[in-house]
Amino acid sequence: MFEGYDFDGFFKDLSKQKILIIGDVMIDSYLWGDVKRVSPEAPVPIVSGIMEESRLGGAANVALNVKSMGAVPILCSVIGGDERGSIFLDLLEEQNLTDVGITVDDYRVTTQKTRIISGFKHLLRVDEEMDSLLPKLVQDRFIEIILNLMDSGGIDSIIIQDYDKGVISPSIIGKISRKANKLKIPLMVDPKFKNFNKYKNITLFKPNFKELKKGLKFELNKSDIDEIIVAAQEFRKKQNLELFMVTLSSNGILVLEEGAHHHLPIIERDVTDVSGAGDTVISLCSICYNAGMTAAQIAAVANLAGGQVCEKSGVIPVNREQLLEECKELLVNKMNDKN
After folding, report:
1. Catalytic site includes residue 140
2. Given this structure, which CATH class describes domain 7-35+48-338?
3. What distance in Å separates the CA atoms of residue 301 and residue 294, rounded to the nearest whole number?
4. What CA–CA distance (Å, rounded) separates 331 from 309?
5. How many CB atoms lie within 10 A of CB 146?
6. Is residue 258 classed as helix, strand or coil in its secondary structure?
7. Quick one: pLDDT at residue 271?
8. pLDDT value for 334
9. Of 44, 43, 47, 49, nearest to 35 (Cα)?
10. Which backbone phi and psi does 76 adopt, to 5 degrees?
11. Which of 35, 146, 166, 230 fits as disulfide partner to 118, beta carbons 3.0 to 4.6 Å?
12. What is the structure's pLDDT at 210?
């Protein structure tokens, strides 16, 4: 699959890519502490020695993954005119990410997910959010910004990262996909549940297994790959999707194209936290597609990257240097050894 492939050259050229990322953003907040006893008030652990940390999450984590790989991300989303919105903008600035695509709605709440963690054990998550659709005036202003960025030129691909928090609507999906097709810009989608069937004429569509089952309204067995292939191919044709990728956790990753499919097993790792792995996978799919990789090659690199971030605690972007070494070792050397 990768015999003779120049991964050094591929990684070196990524700075030439510019990727537009559209979707729900959030703050991933962490409270790290120790558990030494159980509360006398209720059978729950007491967490002490708290250390707080805030990170960019959701579509903003996709932007971080794109940036970590050396490409140029432009993030488009809507945040609230609240204190958390200000924190989000500060986090963007700390990461040297532009806010040119960020719209502020004074009546909206900025999403925050707070995770309480002791050691490597995830004890509790508290979500503060508003998931209603954007008001028409805000939506119109937001889509105008996106379309202007698309018209400005130089966009190599677009990622829609849909977390069902209200930023992505059927109207926005339709306008973006029509414009992308007109401008011949590849469009990648990481869907959730509400808009699953609204995506048509897409370059690459990447649900996880849970999203696939709920989106298709069909009971599937994760270990029955043949059954998944049949259902996914039918949906791919119906929605006019060039590539359809399904992440299957311990059962690997599956990508389908016209007349073919490729099922890749997972790379064995010490999994600590799966949070944010989907963000990493869609980021690498976009980057690899822009570089002209085949469907199977895209799935292989994305599979490696998604597994890498699962070894770390919390939502973090891919490590470019580690991924380069793994690509050369696991996708070139070991595959050549097998041949």
Report:
1. no
2. alpha beta
3. 11
4. 18
5. 20
6. coil
7. 79
8. 62
9. 47
10. -125, 120
11. 35
12. 93
Q: What integer pLDDT is reported at residue 122 of this predicted model?
A: 85
List the structure tokens of 218: 């069909």
Could you tell me the sign of the dihedral formed by the alpha carbons of 274, 280, 284, 286, in that order? positive
Full DSSP string of 126-159:
EEE---SPPPHHHHHHHHHHHHHHHHTS---EEE
* pLDDT < 50 regions, the chain: 336-337, 339
What is the pLDDT, as a whole number, of residue 335? Answer: 52
Residues in the chain, overall count: 339
List the structure tokens of 241: 């999707």
Where would I find the beta strands (DSSP E) of the chain? Answer: 18-23, 25-38, 45-58, 72-80, 101-105, 112-118, 121-128, 157-161, 187-190, 204-205, 243-247, 253-257, 260-264
- Selection from 174, 181, 169 nearest residue 138 by Cα: 169
Q: Write out the DSSP string of 295-328.
A: HHHHHHHHHHHHHHHTTSSSS----HHHHHHHII
The alpha carbon of residue 89 and the mean position of all alpha carbons in its chain are separated, in whole angstroms, by: 20
Q: What is the distance between the alpha carbons of residues 253 and 263, in angstroms, rounded to a whole number?
A: 6
pTM for the model: 0.94
| The one catalytic residue among 8, 106, 279, 337 | 279
| Pairing of the two strands 253-257 and 243-247 | antiparallel
Q: What residue type is 37 in one-letter code?
A: R
